[in-house]
Structure formats: structure tokens, C-alpha cells
Amino acid sequence: MTMFALVDCNNFYCSCERLFRPDLKRVPVVVLSNNDGCIVARSQEAKDLGIKMGTPLFKARNEIKRYGIRVFSSNYTLYGDISSRVMQTLEQFSPRMEIYSIDEAFLDLSGTGSWPDYGQQIRSTVKRHVGVPVSVGIAPTKTLAKLANYAAKKFRATRGVVDLSDPRRQQRLLALTPVSEIWGIGRNLTRTLERRGMRTALDLAQINPRQAKRLSSVVLERTVRELNGESCIELDEVAAPKQQIVCSRSFGEKLTDYSKVREAICEFTARAAEKLRREKLAARMVNVFIRTSPFDNAGPKYSNSATGTLPQSSSDTLEILALATRLFDMIWKEGCRYAKTGIMLGDFCSPDRIQLDLFDMGPGRKRSDNLMRVIDTINQGGQGKVWFGGQRPQKNWFMRQENLSPAYTTKWNCIPVVK
DNA sequence: TCTGGGGTCCTAGGACCC
DNA sequence: TCTGGGGTCCTAGGACCC
């Protein structure tokens, strides 16, 4: 019998921040999005205080002060490293595993017995080896495993593990769960379904799959089938090759200056090209966008983007930069207070299959590859020592990160010392 | 004053082909 | 004069996820 487990770290970013700060145990903690904009992770204590996911920091200032909530800027270097440790630990529990996001993974538990015990074993092992708490949901479809995990987190009596292999238990939980909590049902679908009188997951599970398709799309049809125990979404063991790479960011302050916004675009282009080379890909499509903030009433609203095609697929920062800056000039408008800019790369192929330009048969290409390799090696040292014309080394306006924790596990000088 | 970033998938509609 | 049907590819936009 096919059985999936969804293992999901509890309040992952907060748990990471606490790993090296035992003094923060039982203290409410929140972690902010890039640029210290919104609250994107909350410890249980912070949730209990009514802090909502996605709240802009400035709207929670009062509560933070009143309850002494500890605030952290996001530290993706730390979270990424802890994540890979969790995943390594999970690998030993199943021959087939899909890393679904930074803090969760599906395991194939078919053929294993006594699922609740096995779930508890997973929990205690991750806690012992890495130190972060996880919850485990077990069920015959991925959608039900997600639901089981939701219950494992929500109901304390489950001790962090819910086994939904029994259809009667599935029904009971479905009846208790609001339709909005189902994997794949977002804000819009919730509205559509509620308008038709479906409020619980059970209400949705009971409609005809074909009707679900008519109501929305095959995605909803699959969800209905999965809720009824029919597995439609397979385990993806190998990550699909990327189809696009995006680098974008809001600024720490509004920018009106052409040269500063252009610097930002150059910076993002260099980063995106690095990612591209790390994935061993080459891109042909480049898209650049700029926009003002929808919340900013102090100036005109403006949002625009431009797309261009490279003469041939490339992962060379200089070639991409040349196109990106040209696209940027096409959409630049004077007199706006810009809040955000970014670049998208797409239309990928692997570099060994690049269609060569008639006039670029080899040596030039090779030189560019070598140059990029050298630059990547130098920059991986950590501080970004080589940059291109247009990028700028010190950018104090760039991103707000006022409460950043140390890179405890990835930088020698940040490793905690036991006295 | 202060509102994230990086992705995927699906559908509809237009252009084009035979 | 009569003016089909099926297929592919591309793009934009919407919805969702973490």
C-alpha cells in the first residue's frame, strides 16, 4: 500500500534562530522578510499572542514592545544550512524522498509498518541530530499527508504525529478542517467554494471530481480525488531543472536617482548570472522590471518591464549585463519614487548545447567561460571581491537588515564558542 | 517612516500551419 | 459561391505554494 509522510519543521526560521540561543526558549520570536518588511515566521508563543503571518512589521510594533517579542531579520545562509542537515537526517528513513521546500519533505513510507511509531522515531531523530522540532503527517496521498501534518501541528495530543491511513479518521479530520486549509486551496478558491456552500474539507471532498474541474481546473479536480484517497500527485525525487531565475528586491528607501536604480539592476543581474552558472544553464530571455510602491502616495505610480533576447544563449555576466542595462534604459522614467526592481532570466538550455553564432565559433566563448569561472571562485570566498562596472560595492540604501543573527554554522568567525 | 522574494502550473486566446 | 477542423506554439494573466 502506498503511503506518504510529510515531515515539516515547526516554525522553521524561528527554530533556527533559537538553535544557538537557548535563552530564547519559550520567549516569543518572529523572523522578518527581506528588507525587514513583513513577519514571515512566528514561534508558538508569538502565534499565541495573536501575531499574524505576513503582518508588516510597523503594524506589530505595539505588540512587540508590550510583550517583549524578539525580532530577527531573515538569515537565509543559516536556514539553508540547517535545512540541508534536516534533509540529510531524513534520508535514512526512506529510499525515496522529495525535498518539497526549505523546511519540508515527502517520504515514501510504502512497505514500512507501524506508521505512528515510525513517525515518532523520525521526530526524535531530527530533534537529536539537528535540534529543530518537526511534525509528521502520514497518509495515502500527498494532499492527505499535508492535512495530517496540519493536524499534527494543531492538536497537541497528537504529539506531533498523525497517521491518516484509516479512511474513517480521514473523514473525521476532513469534517473538522476549514476548506481554506487544504493544500492547493488559496484565497480565491476559498471564496469560490464558500459561495457554493462548501465550508469544510469534507464538503469539498464530497463533490464530483468532474464538477470540480468545471468549477476551476484540473488542479481542483486532482485535489478532490486526493482528498478521497486516490493518489494523483506523485513523489518527485529529482528536482526538475529550473525554468526561470529571478533576482529582485525592494529597496531600504525609495529611490529617485537613475544611477542608483541602475546599480541595483546591475547587482541583481550579476547575482542572477551566478545562479545561472551554478545551475549549469545558459539563458536566452532577459526581462527587467521596475516599479514604485502601490502603498506610496507621495509620487506617481509607475510599473513597467521590458523583455529582450540574447543573440545566443549565454551565462556570461557581461553579455547579460549589456542587454539588461539596455532594457533598463527603455523603461526608466524620471520623477518616480522607485520601490523595487528586478531581473528575470529564462528560456534556458545547458551550455554544451548552445547554438553557436556564425561569427562566434569558439575561442571567444571559451575565454568567457574561463573568466566567469575565475570570478565565481573568487567571489565564493564570501565577501564578493570582484564586481562589474555598474555594480557598486557599498550600498547602504540597499536592504534593511537591522536584526541579523550571525552565520553560526557557515562562517568560521561566527561559530559559537563554549566557555 | 515602515507592506518579501522566488518559484510553478494552468488556461485562454491569438497566430499560424496543413 | 461555398469558407473546416485539428494541431502546435507562444504569451499574458491568474492562482497557488513556501
From TrEMBL:
Q: Which GO terms describe its cellular component?
A: cytosol
A Gene Ontology annotation in the biological process aspect, one of them, is: SOS response
Q: Mention any Pfam family matching this sequence.
A: IMS_C
Q: Which InterPro entries match?
A: DNA/RNA_pol_sf, DNA_pol_Y-fam_lit_finger_sf, DNA_pol_Y-fam_little_finger, DNA_polymerase-Y, DUF4113, Rev_trsase/Diguanyl_cyclase, UmuC
Task: State any single GO MF term.
Answer: DNA-directed DNA polymerase activity
What CDD domains does the annotation carry? Answer: PolY_Pol_V_umuC
Keyword DNA damage attached: yes
The record's keywords, sorted A to Z, are:
DNA damage, DNA repair, SOS mutagenesis, SOS response
Task: Enumerate the PANTHER family for this protein.
Answer: DNA REPAIR POLYMERASE UMUC / TRANSFERASE FAMILY MEMBER (PTHR11076), PROTEIN UMUC (PTHR11076:SF34)
Similarity comment text for this entry? Belongs to the DNA polymerase type-Y family.
Identify this protein by name: DNA polymerase V subunit UmuC
This chain's source organism reads Geothermobacter hydrogeniphilus
